[in-house]
Amino acid sequence: MKPADCRLRTLICIVTAMSLTAGMAVADNPAGAPEDWPMPLMDDSPFGLILLDRLEYGDSDDGNSRLWDAQGWYGGDYNKLWVKTEGEGATGESLEAAETQLLYNRTFSPFWGWQTGVRYDVRPGEKDVAHAVFGLQGLAPQWFETDVALFLSDEGDVSLRGEFEYDLLLTQRLKLQPRLEFNAYAQDIPERNLGSGLGNTEAGLRLRYEIRRELAPYIGVRWERLYGETRDMARAAGGDPSRTSLVVGIRAWF
Amino acid sequence: MNRNPDPGRRQLLKALAASGLITGLGPLLPAYARAGVQVAGRASVPGGTPRDVTIDIAIRRESIDIAGGYASATTINHTIPGPLVELWEGQRARLRVSNHLDEDSSIHWHGILLPFEMDGVPGVTFPGIPPGESFVADFPVRQYGTYWYHSHSGLQEQTGVYGPLVIHPREPEPFEFDRDYVVVLSDWTFEDPYRVMAKLKKMGDYYNFNQRTVGEFFEDIEKAGLQTTLRDRVAWGNMRMSPTDIADITGHTYTYLMNGTHPAGNWTGLFNPGERVRLRVINASAMTFFNVRIPGLPMTVLLADGQYVEPVETDEFQIGVAERYDVIVEPQRDQAYTVMAESMDRSGYARGTLAPRAGMAAVVPPLREPPQRTMIDMGMDMANMDMGDMTMTSGGMQGGREGQDMAGMKHEGHDMQGMQMGGPGSMMESAGPVVARHGPDWHGPGNISVAEVQRNRLGEPGTGLESVGHRVLTYAQLRNVVPMQDTREPTHKVELHLTGNMDRYMWSFDGEEFHEVDGPIDFPYGERVRLIMVNDTMMEHPIHLHGMFMELENGQGDRLPFKDTISLKPSERVSLLITAVEPGRWAFHCHLLYHMEMGMFRVVRIRDGETDI
After folding, report:
1. Which residues in chain A have Cβ-Cβ distances shorter than 8 Å to B447?
2. Whose CA is closest to B455, among B398, B550, B534?
3. pTM
4. Using CB atoms, which residue from B123, B596, B599 is nearest to A38?
5. For A165, which of A5, A145, B28, B506 could close a Cys bridge (C-beta 3.0–4.6 Å)?
6. Residue B523: which of B566, B576, B482 has the closest Cα?
7. Beta carbons of B199 and A32 less than 8 Å apart
């Protein structure tokens, strides 16, 4: 089976599973009223969110960069369709990498949902890569926004990613957000210069001001670092295994 | 701390009001702000000869002056609140509701005993009123007291569809008064309520601009010590809830109104010194609990939810959404008195004045410090927290005597000093006794926490009023003037838990939203029913049962007070008695409008075998 077919089938499976679960949630006439009357309230209406968590410009010794990191969801309390996208590149050049995830989210506890679906990576000059995604997203104790996912690529490579964010309220509108992301790999992926083990971390500290809850410009610092074999491969290719950038950006949602 | 995040115009109006300039500037102000005397006229209860009443109620979408602005609102007979509906006990009411909107509408008569088909809840008692059509609620009036009416369709109530309803008793009132005013409290937003709901769904604390900051963390360390402060932050962090979450929707978007009037407009009720003034305080808000007081005037509470209680003199009371208290005040001096209705989270206030002449004003007291939730509210088991040797009453007093026994208990929370978790005001000394413990069911993803220990909190004055330095009304003080009619032991018991998830803005009973349940809750016809409710959430919820009174087991022996709406404090367990003799399908829900719309709603069904229900 060609990878494209496989991806299509996965998608179809997800959509089917979602519609089945959505259908199951409808109970019979909770009001005990005649069938042709309207429901007294619309407590199963879907909602949706689009969150542009980071849209930023970075300045470092190695040159300037731009980055986006956004996600959105649509659905009910228990079943949601979830989309995530992020990408980055040097300014003035074409993108280095962009990825999109299409996920089904099932809320299984007050603060947590498991997520499954597909991820599709585009890197100019390289072959596109598709992944199956198994993830867990939610709010951990002590207010850590958490998103952890296991990826299985169509080449059979396994990788793990974790993202953690925390908001420190300096005032009601001025918030300092530490952020940590890591990527780890179960095996070497030579064509992408990735070695097994912890591959890279990206730590950030961003200070944002919420003009409205929905709109907050920010400034901050981003520290990127490579580890282990990934670092050695980068060195061998003449790259710098770490980079520090000053960033300025916008966080927005609606 | 951002306690007054009002738009500039409101700040200006407040400043003008405070400086007394508003009276002088009268002609320059919009109509609402000049309407003091006129509005007083509308809020006055005329009374008169008992008669059958036929009234036309017309619901329209139109632009009006409101809350210091000009907005598209939903009016009743062109006003907000709608007209005073006056009825007479023993006579007949014919209330004709015409829907001039381009969507379905309805009017529910809150607290009124009537055939259920007249109750006005779309999808429960009738199909609703389609655009351009009308519905007549035609029923014999079987009760007296202070009530209200409002739309039960979607979020229409938030946009203005509410008004006062007064029923004059057949028998003379057991007290005298010279003036009679309704005081309708409400909350207004210029936002589309569906936008408000969507924002809460995406960010539960969207409107809370009183959250704890890094600065407060260090202040608390200074006040309470590092260990206590850390333990407090860890406890809250584990629950992922905020102690400053007092109200979902705050003064950040709300303007609080008294008889439809902005605080700067200063609704005024006139009196002559020495007169007895009756104020029928009606909380017609969508989401706001108020603390009501009249500095300098003690209030005597005479009715609760429209029914007589033994007179209780007090200085302040907290009123949940949809509740009513009738009070009498006797201003002796030739001066103005401020009627202050502070929102429970203290992010704003509604305000009016009692005065001998129009145009007078008294000092408006500043908003007090916002309260914080405590470990008592969390319902945490202190015994497991190494917090001293607090004795627990063992769980499940589910016998026939629950409730009656509660008030006799002594408070047990006394020896927990040092347990003041973070916030400066401790509720510990006044916390009611533990009466039960929670079972193993945590009610699923729609519920964050449970009241591990459940308290009788009927003797507590309400969040933020624990140590105000004057008398505050409690539920435990309410005592019926007539003995209990149905003294049978309850033969049917229903226990419901109030559940919610502030993070996802989900609200439910027993963790199940309305659309997830299979059918109504049946009360067997003719039986005495005990309804037990446990608040597993961290917020107050005013729970309303349509079509009948509930008798609150507050320890007043055979004089339990009648209530149609009961506000549960966090981690509280209450018990109510109901005689199931009103056949029909009756809505039963949290009266916080957005909680109801999210699914904190049930239907109670009483089948008498004759009516088709």
Report:
1. 110
2. B534
3. 0.89
4. B123
5. A145
6. B576
7. no
Q: Which of residues 331-390 of B touch A (CB under 8 A)?
A: none
Which is nearest to B346 in space by CA: B299, B267, B298, B289? B289
Is B120 in a helix, a strand, or coil? coil
Pairwise CA distance, residues A148 & A134, whole Å? 9
Tens-digit pLDDT profile for residues B267-321: 999 999 999 999 999 999 999 999 999 999 999 999 999 999 999 999 999 999 9
Cβ-defined contact of A171 to B587 (cutoff 8 Å): no
Q: Do A169 and B213 touch (CB under 8 A)?
A: yes
Give A42's contacts in chain B (Cβ within 8 Å): 154, 597
From CA A12, how far away is CA A40, in angstroms rounded? 34
Q: What is the DSSP letter of B126?
A: B
Alpha-carbon gap: A196 to the closest alpha carbon of chain B (Å)? 35
Beta carbons of A177 and A206 less than 8 angstroms apart: yes
pLDDT at position B403 is: 36
Whole-angstrom Cα distance, residue B491 to residue A205?
62
Question: Under an 8 A CB cutoff, do A110 and B517 touch?
Answer: no
Please name the amino acid found at residue B41. G
Residue of B206, B215, B601 lying closest to A40 (CB–CB): B601
Which candidate from B152, B448, B519 shows the least CB-CB separation from A30?
B519
Residue in chain B closest to A108 (alpha carbons) equals B445
Report pLDDT digits (tens) over B213-240.
999 999 999 999 999 999 999 999 999 9
A·B CB contacts under 8 A: 133
- Provide CB contacts within 8 A for A151, sequence distance 6+: A119, A131, A132, A133, A158, A159, A160, A161
Q: Which residue numbers of A have CB closer than 8 Å to B's CBs?
A: 25-34, 36-44, 47, 49, 77-78, 107-111, 139, 141-143, 168-173, 213, 253
Count how many residues are written for chain A.
254
Closest-CA distance, B328 to chain A, in angstroms, reads 38
Nearest chain B alpha carbon to A45: B598
SS (H, E, C) chain A: CCHHHHHHHHHHHHHHHHHHHHHHCCCCCCCCCCCCCCCCCCCCCCEEEEEEEEEEEEEECCEEEEEEEEEEEEECCCEEEEEEEEEEEECCCCCCEEEEEEEEEEEEECCEEEEEEEEEEECCCCCCEEEEEEEEEEEECCCEEEEEEEEEECCCCEEEEEEEECCEECCCCEEEEEEEEEEEECCCEHHHCECCEEEEEEEEEEEEECCECCEEEEEEEEEEEECHHHHHHHHHCCCCCEEEEEEEEEEEEC
Q: Of A144, A103, A139, A142, nearest to A11 (Cα)?
A: A103
Flag if A40 and B154 touch (Cβ within 8 Å): no
> Which amino acid, B422?
G
pLDDT for A66-106, tens place per residue?
Answer: 999 999 999 999 999 999 999 998 877 777 899 999 999 99
Closest to B568 (Cα-Cα) out of B442, B465, B479, B460:
B460
Rounded Cα distance between B590 and B536, Å, is 14
pLDDT, tens only, B93-134: 999 999 999 999 999 999 999 999 999 999 999 999 999 999
Interface touch B214/A47, C-beta < 8 Å: no
Nearest CA in chain A to B208: A172
Is residue B340 within 8 Å of residue B299, measured between CB atoms?
no
Amino acid at B387: M
Residue B335 DSSP class: S
**B493 within 8 A of B451, measured Cβ to Cβ:** no
Contacts of B191 (CB under 8 A, 6+ apart): B253
Contacts of B154 in chain A (CB under 8 A): 41-42
Rounded to whole angstroms, how far apart are CA atoms A166 and A178? 6
CA–CA separation, B48 and B28 (whole Å): 37
